[in-house]
Amino acid sequence: MSETALRRLAELSLVAIASVWGLTFVMVQDAIALLPTMAFLAYRFIPAALIVAVIFHRQLRALPGEGRRAGVVMGVFLTGGYIFQTLGLEETSASNTGFITGLFVVLTPILGAIFLRQRIPSLAWVAAGVSMLGLWLLSGAGGEFNLRGDGLVFLCAISLAAHILATARAVARFHVGALLAVQLGVVGFTCLAIAAVAGQLEPPEGGTVWSALIVTSLVASALGFFVQSFAQQHAPPARTALILASEPAFAGLFGWLLNDERLTATGWLGAALIMASIVAVEVVPRFRPPRPLPEG
Fold it and tell me: In whole angstroms, what is the distance from residue 161 CA to residue 103 CA?
């Protein structure tokens, strides 16, 4: 297969995964109405972790202690992201959840500047301000925003941004598949322990719950990470970022199609501002001409 064909396949795969990730917001929202949140997350991530561990068992065995610790740190942030996101889905719409979660793209350079002293371009600060305005409009112009619902999902976006920063350091030194198995396991078994302590470890029942678990565990988690890794080997970074930024749009689309969720005019404006800030942070810098070398 030619490189052009591989690139087209990679881009189509990214679109498919972005649409699946957008669909899962609606599916998870329906499922956690029937099954406790922590139990659902445990049943979602433990099978995904086991599948990845089986596939990369050799790399996992060879992962040194420092690499395992890096995987645990990644898992802690990923756990926070999914717990906040799923709890937020209990209080807000799938559309809001999708758009607010997408803010991790904007928040990542902000956290990098604050905690890792990374240099942050002025565009990132502008995008952060625009996205905060969008978040305020999306959540009802401030009237309905609190630490429940939209506020919890915003904490999810912060956690996922921290996860990206931790991942960037870890994957430069350790095998991606082994790290993925560790972090998915941390999410799954942490949620299992919380569910057990809280007395919420109920067995999954019903087609709604089982279909959500199958899609989120096998497709969105295990397969989704594999597809993203494959795609980024062939699709240009700007193109990859632009395609993955469509996830919130898919969340809004499926929220409208399946749950009859409708945004107000103010909400649509807020969603548009968030999407614009996400795309701008990733795409605009790619079109800047390189700086000329100093004359010697």
Answer: 9
Share of the chain above pLDDT 70, in %: 84
Q: In terms of pLDDT, which residue wins out, 8 or 295?
A: 8
The torsion angles phi and psi of 201, rounded to 5 degrees, stand at -85, 75
Token reading at 118:
């990374």
Could you tell me how far CA 90 lies from the centroid of its own chain?
Answer: 18
Residue 83 lies in domain:
3-286
Distances (CA, A) of 15 to 23, 154, 176, 235, 240: 12, 24, 22, 12, 9
Q: What is the pLDDT of residues 187-221, one digit of tens each?
A: 999 999 999 999 999 999 999 999 999 999 999 88
Rounded Cα–Cα distance for residues 178 and 71 (Å): 8
User: What pLDDT score was predicted for residue 241?
Assistant: 54
- Give the count of domains, the chain: 1
Q: Which of 234, 218, 213 is nearest to 11 (CA)?
A: 234
Does residue 291 sit within a domain?
Answer: no
- HEC string of 190-250 equals HHHHHHHHCCCCCCCCCHHHHHHHHHHHHHHHHHHHHHHHHHCCCCCHHHHHHHHCCHHHH
Closest CA to 151 of 140, 162, 163, 166: 140
> pTM of the entire structure?
0.79
Quick one: which H or E segment has residue 274?
A: helix 265-283
Q: Alpha-carbon torsion 162, 36, 55, 62, what sign?
A: positive
Task: Tell the residue number behind the tokens 């915003």, with chain if given.
Answer: 154
Residues 6+ apart with CB under 8 A from 264: none
CA 16, CA 227: separation in Å to the nearest integer? 9
40 belongs to a structural domain: yes
